[in-house]
Amino acid sequence: MTQNPRILLIYTGGTIGMVKDFETGALRAFNFDKLRQHIPELKQVNCSIDSISFEAPIDSSDMDPAQWVMIAEIIESKYQGYDGFVVLHGSDTMSYSASAISFMLENLSKPVIFTGSQLPIGDLRTDAKENLITSIEIAAAQHKGFPVISEVCLYFEYKLYRANRTTKINAEHFQAFSSPNYPPLAESGVHLKFNRSLIPETSKAAPLIVSKTLVSDIAVLKLFPGITKNTVESVLRISGLRGVILETYGAGNAPTSAWFIDLLSEAISRGINIVSVTQCKGGSVIMGKYEASLLLQKIGLINGLDITTESALTKMMYLLGKDIHPENFAHTFEKSLRGEIGTNA
Ligand code: ASP
After folding, report:
1. Active site residue 15
2. Which of 49, 160, 239, 269 is deepest in the core (most CB within 10 A)?
3. How far is it, in rounded angstroms, from Cα 173 to Cα 55?
4. Closest ligand 1 atom, residue 59 Cα
5. What is the CA radius of gyration of the chain?
6. CB–CB of 229/271 below 8 Å?
7. Using one digit for the tens of pLDDT, what is the confidence trace for 170-225?
């Protein structure tokens, strides 16, 4: 460990580094050097900071698995040289990206903190400075020579969350994220308080494994009263489809109509993996609690328990890239891999 922790900032884009376009008035990303000029405070932070930027920073609406691989590769190639990583990212798809990266990096023993802001860094009332500076402090935090955090997290508006538990909840408030089924790992006030009972000990035993194969042949299907056979059938018949995240009602309930159950059952028999997650903002799927979920259990839907849609989607992409035997897929999905699922995760 170096005297001053070494932190790498990875700038991908997002509001944090945006300026108004003169002609259209719309916000667009600008380069990292300009962003740095707006935060002279970075010089006062007690660690050495380097930065690396996407060649063309993007609005996070343009994020996709290819860019997740780019982020993972940057971390992989710089892993030995740094004590922690801070990824600057647009807030719109941050929960998806941060969840994906959490699965792609196995045996992580250093902090990877995603952050961004609701207002650009040059704005007088910006939330960017606090988010960025505290994220750096978290990435640099050490205890007895080990990093305090050794997982992928998301820091926003005074709270540090396990990344794969988060969801974006507000397009305007500074408090843009929540982690409905898992408490914050740290809160920042006058002091930075880590909730150590929720943070696994850092283990350096196994080397970092970076998975770069993500399968995108999946769909998210949100149930709504009145959903037609045509709609469900069209989704399940998408050519090459490998997985579906089915957003069910409440504790995992769905229509009991024969046509609906038959379509799902037939898709499962064609090898499509269907996972039930709740549309509710918090709580868990409890298969078999109501008759309306018993049928789903019988035909072999995967139980998404309390996982978020963002996490279920990226976990599906990750696991499909692993060539898991079809018989083991459901079991593997229902297990906690990075603390993303289950109340005792
Ligand atoms: N549209 C922006 C983005 O996600 C919003 C933000 O950064 O907060 O890139």
Report:
1. yes
2. 160
3. 30
4. 9
5. 21
6. no
7. 999 999 999 999 999 999 999 999 999 999 887 777 999 999 999 999 999 999 99
Among protein residues, the one with the nearest Cα to ligand 1's atom 7 is: 90
Q: Could you identify the atom of ligand 1 that is nearest to the CA of residue 176?
A: 8
Atom of ligand 1 nearest to the CA of 14: 9
Q: Probe ligand 1: pick from 16, 18, 60, 172, max atoms within 8 Å of CB? A: 60
Q: Name the percent of the chain in helix, strand, coil, to the closest 5.
A: 30, 25, 45
Spot the catalytic one: 15, 202, 248, 278: 15
Domain ranges across the chain: 6-210, 218-333
pTM over cut 0.85 = yes
Residue minimizing CA distance to atom 4 of ligand 1: 90
- CATH (one of 3.40.50.40, 3.90.1150.10, 3.40.630.30, 3.30.310.80) for 218-333: 3.40.50.40
> Can you state the angle between helices 94-104 and 65-78, rounded to 10 degrees?
50
